[in-house]
Amino acid sequence: MQHITINTIKTWERFYRANFINCLTGFKAVSLIGTVNANGQPNLGVFSSVVHLGSDPALIGFINRPLAAAPHTIDNIKATDVYTINHIHPTIAAQAHQSSAKYPIDVNEFREVGLTEFYLPNLVAPFVKESHVKYALSLVEIVPITHNNTFLVIGRVTDVILADNLMQADGFLALEQAESLASLGVDAYYSTQKLARYGYAKPEKPIEILK
């Protein structure tokens, strides 16, 4: 086993250090966030920091990088109060990754990377048509994280669009059937496979394996 101290980590080259730290937290859900600015210009970006915050109300958060590095998504959410989150699957993984490029503000990333905008009536934020699992959110709160100038963006789920046969009888989503991907670091994508589902854990109760 290796023991690496923070003092050693600080001596590493910037991108080497960033790769290392980004991998420490393990595999993460990776999604495309679709937004539109006040002038109707669509924007698309890839994010691996989406996190469940609560089920009632249905709250989901993501971390936006400092404004100097990633201003478009958060600025659009501030302007319209709505956005979409779209799962990535193998067929669109390369296009999704390309959306991480720093395109100018007047460029439509959907068109640039080869993905298709999809809209619901009365919802200005675009979904990714090719995504098998996608949902819309309304902005609840943007929480500044002052230590590194990032932001926790919190939204309330308003609409969900799923491919057929993903939702189980108990509400569980079989995302491996949607081929939803995970990511590691900033540039690696992984397919998923269900290992097992276990029953609700209680003291003195044997572990139950669910079908």
TrEMBL record:
Keywords: Flavoprotein, FMN, Oxidoreductase. Its EC number is 1.5.1.-. Residues 29-165 form the Flavin reductase like domain. GO terms for molecular function: oxidoreductase activity. It is an enzyme of class 1 (oxidoreductase). Pfam families: Flavin_Reduct. Coiled coil: none annotated. Its cofactor is FMN. InterPro entries: Flavin_Rdtase-like_dom, Split_barrel_FMN-bd. PANTHER family: FLAVIN REDUCTASE LIKE DOMAIN-CONTAINING PROTEIN (PTHR33798:SF5), FLAVOPROTEIN OXYGENASE (PTHR33798). Belongs to the flavoredoxin family. This is Flavin reductase family protein.
